[in-house]
Amino acid sequence: MKVIYLDNNATTQCAPAVVEAMLPYFSEKYGNASSMHTFGGGNRHAIDTARQQVADLIGAAHAEEIIFTSCATESDNTAIFSAVHTQPKKKHIITSAVEHPAVMEPYKYLEAKGYRVDFIGVDELGRFDMARFQSVLDEDTALVSVMWANSETGTIFPIADIARLAHEKGALFHTDAVQAVGKIPVNVQEADIDMLSLSGHKFHGPKGVGALYVRRGTLFMPYLMGGHQERHRRAGTENVPYIVGLGKAAELAQQRLSDGTSRRIATLRDKLEKGILATVPDVKVNGDPVHRVPNTTNISFGYIEGESILMYLNDLGICASSGSACTSGSLEPSHVLRAMGVPFQFAHGSIRFSLSDQTTEADIDLVLKELPAIIERLRKISPFSRLAA
Amino acid sequence: MWDYTDKVMDHFRNPRNVGAIPNADGTGQVGSLVCGDALKLTIKVNKETDVIEDAKFETFGCASAIASSSILTEMIKGKTIAEASKITNQDIADALGTLPAEKMHCSVMGMEALEAAVKSYRQGGQPVVFEQQEEKIVCHCFNVSEETIIKAIRANHLKTVEDVTHFTKAGGGCGRCKGEIQKILNKVNGACEIPAAAKKSFAQMTVVEKIKAIELVLEEEIRPKLNMDGGSAELVDLDGTTVKIRLTGMCSGCAGAAGTLKNFIEKTLKEKVDASLSVEQA
Question: Which position has the higher pLDDT, A383 or A111?
């Protein structure tokens, strides 16, 4: 059965050119990049190239501002703990209520350790509550960490504005840009970012590698201590093949941002969304329709449950995801949809479709052909369907 | 990705007995849109023999909720009301092969709907909504009563709060009731709270007990706060009521070290161990 992969915010396929770039570093070029001999130390040049490729993708002024990590979760944790450890007198930190757990959990940990923490809410379209943010921000704020784009709804936050306000009060600004990098133009200098996390496998790079941008001059404390790698900022033998793969993926992503690929993806996404709205009653799009990454749509189907929809789609080889409680093993629906105040009957029935440059029009047509019958079938079983009529 | 059995997938893909029986002899409802799953069960009963001749369901929920409802209708058809009343959630799960632990509450929902439908039949057919007793609600997020929790613990030999959450959903929301669930577990499983040993005064303690008491407060109250500034403290010696402490990490050589010793460490030890204690730098 052909797989119709519409879950690219979860992970993407590693691009063939990326795999090809990585392969020599598993076999003939296996040397340690820190070695004195050319055989190993020569790999340093491959890492330097990758560092420049990643720096270019996010508009960093200096390649050395990029620290390679094992994943974006490590990048997020490093940034957060560095910001609080280097400013021990400040005891207040701010984030949004819709962050990824990689930011949410360190914040909750610090809250338990005695920090004052503000989780800034969002409105019904998932837009950041700027007024609330300004009212809690003060000179005691060590760090503001707000995601660039939301993984579940694709909503883009006004990062440059948030960074400016944070800096006015002397706070550091970090952004988890995992769902933005590679999908929309990201420029750390224009947006005035101190630290930014990104992940390779969200834009056709390999899993197991990420990066943290730290602006030159930013107070920094490493998270992993040990060897001198990454200029003493991240110990551990450099993962040469994965770093090379991340670099290549960054280069390809930059091409896609300028060659019209994003527009093509957005066109397909809009076709899918409009098609569903036209053929299925009692549906609702979640998120900000104006400020949204081009590949994501989050749609709620009233009166039925998300896991059931996913399982029927799965039978047809269609991969998507859901903010339903049942899919995650937790019992409450997505914290993002709840923060937006999405009613429960819609939150439980939410489905996220996330496209990539590999998505074809035929894929979208198949979903549009099959989905209405699945929804109708489940609504027939549901005791609440007559509420819809 | 759940490991559903083929039986679960079969009943999910091809649910049996979907719908509502018109003029049913018994109608049981459980759950709501808010909870994320709900089941309406209708039964047709032969009044002469008490045999359930037909059963239909409507379910809002995940694959395992739909499968549990579907197989339940098959299980009760042809049984008398008395026989059907004996079906437990475990019987439903067994009939499906098994259910993932996190999904056991789906089988509990089936049992509750059946209970409500039987009650409805006995009361003359008016629909009955399975209700928890208001005054005994333990988990307010999911509206789960103490009675439901006790039943689930007994029927399924549950041992931990996590088990109870998997079977009843209780404790799966804000988590505030987890302490209460633990108490119910202790009560049902026969564990009793060990009465705290009568507290000895500091002077009555042996040297080992004194050191342990001080070390406990250091570990739980003092070090976590010092750690936040990158420092820590070690107990070096105890001379009568004089506690000798060495500050380490960022605290060693810190200009505020003397203040930390007196105003924080000594104050905390006086409060938590004994008022007679004083602290000196080792």
Answer: A111
Whole-structure pTM value = 0.78
pLDDT tier at A329 (50, 70, 90 boundaries)?
A: low
Query: How confident is the model at residue B73, as a pLDDT?
Result: 96
Residues of A in contact with B58 (CB under 8 A): 381-383
Known catalytic membership, residue B251: no
User: Residues B7-37, buried b or exposed e (16+ Cβ, 10 A)?
Assistant: ebbbbbeebbbbeebeebbbbbbbbbbebbb
Domain A260-388 has CATH 3.90.1150.10: yes
Question: What's residue A150's pLDDT?
Answer: 96
Q: How many residues does chain A have?
A: 389
pLDDT in tens, B16-47: 999 999 999 999 999 877 777 899 999 999 99
> Where in chain A are all domains bearing CATH 3.40.640.10?
16-257
Q: Which of A109, A219, A282, A307 to mutate to test the interface with B (most CBs of B within 10 A)?
A: A307
Q: CB-CB: which of B33, B34, B59 is closest to A381?
A: B59
- Kindly report, as residue ranges, where domains of CATH 3.90.1150.10 are found in chain A: 260-388
- Tell me which residue in B29, B66, B173 faces A381 most closely, judged by beta carbons: B66
Tokens of B243: 């506690």
CB-nearest partner of A113 from B29, B60, B228: B228
CB–CB contact B18 A332 (8 Å): no
**Residue contact B228–A383, C-beta within 8 A:** no
Identify the sign of the CA torsion B79, B82, B84, B90: negative
- Cα–Cα distance for residue pair B218/B221, rounded to 1 Å: 6
Averaged pLDDT for residues A360-375:
97
Contacts of A91 (CB under 8 A, 6+ apart): A114, A115, A116, A140, A142
Where would I find the H helices in chain A? 16-22, 38-41, 43-58, 72-85, 101-112, 130-136, 159-168, 188-191, 229-232, 240-258, 261-279, 306-315, 325-328, 335-339, 344-347, 361-381, 385-388
Task: Out of 3.90.1150.10, 3.40.50.300, 1.20.5.170, 3.40.640.10, select the CATH number for domain A16-257.
Answer: 3.40.640.10
Nearest chain A Cα to B15, which residue? A381
Counting one residue from chain A and one from chain B, the pairs whose CB atoms sit within 8 A come to: 78
Query: How many residues comprise chain B?
Result: 282
**Active-site annotation holds for B192:** no
The answer, yes or no, to whether ipTM is higher than 0.90 is: no
> Please, are residues A353 and A6 in contact by the beta-carbon 8 Å criterion?
yes
CB atoms within 10 A of CB B212: 11
Quote the CA–CA distance of A116 and B280 in Å, as a whole number: 32
**SS3 at position B139:** strand
